[in-house]
Write the structure tokens for this entry.
Amino acid sequence: MMVQFGPILLRRAGILGVLAGAALATGVARAEVNISPLRQVITDEARTATYRVSNPSNRIIEGRLRWIDLSATETGYVDATPEQREKLSAAPYLTVWPAFFRLEPGADVTVTVAAKVGAPLPAGEHRSHLLVETDAVRTPLRKAGGSLEVDIGLGISTPVILRGGKGDAGATIGETHLLRTTDGSLELETNVEPKGEFSAYGRIDVVFTPRTEKGAGAPEVLRSIDNVAAYIDAPRRRVMAPLGVQELPGGVLEVRYVGRSEFEGETFATRSFEIAPPR
């Protein structure tokens, strides 16, 4: 199973599956339920964290919570192998409640995740994903000449990161390319490589500073990609950033990996590239 970084939308369907969209940029994932924030971090200093799970639909929702273990890749997640799970999983050290919930339309519930009472946190970083599953609902789908009813079950998964002991989070910007899409627009491909005992988390900013006859012009942020996690169990995190332009004048293109959440205000890495003026 290959999915993207951030909250994961999963599905179970009797005939046909329909996958709801996720609003990652706003910090909320949406399916049959909403959950926020995007991730949580448990440490010795902050052993408890909470999520808000809400029901935006017009029906009563019954759901349950359980842990799954996923291994990071450069483009998303895959199911963790037993060997990876033994080294990676945070679930044995965590509790979650309530394990089940029932929400009226528009209602919400607070879900608490905490380190087990009296148990020391293991050294280093571990990660499991909290899966919120809803029961299948029969949904009519229109088709030519009639309709089709299917049973659809949806779930949202979000990472819970466990950090024990001392360690640093860092990252570098690796191999980077300026590509052209099929419609002629420019797109930046870059790789964020974790460095340190703990994973890094932030956003990628692509900033262009034009060169004029009077010197450097005003820098412009061409694209920001949020929710970029550089997990230590993957050698790199590949990021694609559409720039929305078909050419750049002469100047300097800078890629910045800027910390978010617990790393707010920290710049992990920058890398600059000279751009020649178009001929």
Q: What stands out?
A: The chain is about 5% helix and 55% strand.
